[in-house]
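Researcher:
Attend to token order:
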Amino acid sequence: MDKAEFLGLADSDSQPPDGLSPCLHALLLGRRGAWEESHEIVNGIDTPLGSWIHAWLHRVEGDLPNANYWYRLAGRSEERGELELEWGALVDAALAPPSA
């Protein structure tokens, strides 16, 4: 799946396709406003990217101290930019091929 396909999926009411990664699934649900479901998925992702998504979700929620905790776990600085721009960066990271 490329970014254009994912953006189209995120902005629709379509069911996520089988095989969608947990990170992309969490981002899809977060974009659609299903915070609880997204948070439940991201709780099970023990990677820096999962922690970054977790931080973003807590920013969406308005819980900045909790978000900052997750940014630290992700090895990232606290984000202060627009939530939509950060979501796009998260999508790019989730779609990127694994590094060797």
Notes: The mean pLDDT is 93. Residues 48-61 form the longest helix (14 residues).
